[in-house]
Amino acid sequence: MTALEEAIDIGRTVLIAVAITLFVRFFFFQPFNIPSGSMKPTLLIGDFVLVDKVEYGYSRASLIWPMTRMPVHGRVLSDTPNTGEIVVFKNSADKNKDYIKRVIGTPGDTVQVQGGVLYVNGEQVKRELLQQPSHCNLGAGRIVTTMPVYRETLPNGVSYIIQECRGNSSVYDNTEAFVVPAGHYFLMGDNRDNSSDSRSDVVGYKPIPSGWEGEETMFHFVPLDQIVGKATRVAFSVDGDKAQIWEVWKWPFAIRYSRLMGSVE
C-alpha cells in the first residue's frame, strides 16, 4: 500500500467514525454536561449525562443544527414524560441554553409548594428526613455547612433524594397553585433552594389567559416540544475542584469513579 492509499484509508476510517458519532448523537443519545448544582445531590457539577432522544420521540429541540431550523412543530414518534423522570429541555426564553430538571407535574396536575413542602393535586408529597443539617469548622475561618437531605416520594411511587436549606421564607418555598395545561410540564430541581425551574419566571412557558393584553408570554410551564430527551446515565464525572475538564493529566485524581455509568434516578 502506497503512502497516498494509506492516507486515504485513514481518512475514510475517520470519516466513517465521525459519521457514526454524529448519527448516534443526532437520533439516539446526546451527552449533557451538568453546569450547576441545581440537581444536587442527584447530579453533580462535572457529571456528563447521556440523554436518550428516542424515549420521547423527536422535535426541533431534540435535533441538532441545521435540522433545528426545519419548519416543523410538535413531535414525531412521540411518547410523554412520566412524573419523576429527569429531562433535558430548551428554555423558551433562551433556546440556545439547555436545562435539566425533574418532572413534577404533568398535564392536568396542580402543583404547589407551601412552607418548603411539595403538594401535588392537593396532597402533600411524602418526605423522609435522611440527614440533619450540620456545621463543621475546618479552621482558618472555613466552615462547611451541610443542608438537610430528604427522600421524596411522588404519588406514582417514584422516589428520589432532594436537599434544601432550613427556613422557608423564599418565594420558591411558598408558591401559587400551578395548574399544568395540556402539552406542558412542571419541572423542578432537586436542590430546591438553588434551582431556576418552573417555580420561577425565567424557565418554561405559561399560556396566555383569555383576554390578556400584556406581554406575549408568561413563564412557568415547559412545552413538550421543547424537551430534548430523558437523562439516563452518568457516563463520566470529574470533580472540578480537583481538575478542569481540559486538564486531562489530573483526571486520574479527579474522576468520580463511583459515579461512572450510574443510572440517573
UniProtKB/TrEMBL annotation:
Supply the alphabetized keyword list: Hydrolase, Membrane, Protease, Transmembrane, Transmembrane helix
Taxonomic superkingdom: Bacteria
BP GO annotations: signal peptide processing
Q: Main site of residence?
A: membrane
Q: Under which main EC class is this enzyme filed?
A: hydrolase
E.C. code: 3.4.21.89
Q: Which reaction does it catalyse?
A: Cleavage of hydrophobic, N-terminal signal or leader sequences from secreted and periplasmic proteins
Would you tell me the protein name for this molecule? Answer: Signal peptidase I
**Species this chain originates from:** Parvularcula marina
The organism's taxonomy opens as: Bacteria, Pseudomonadati, Pseudomonadota, Alphaproteobacteria, Parvularculales
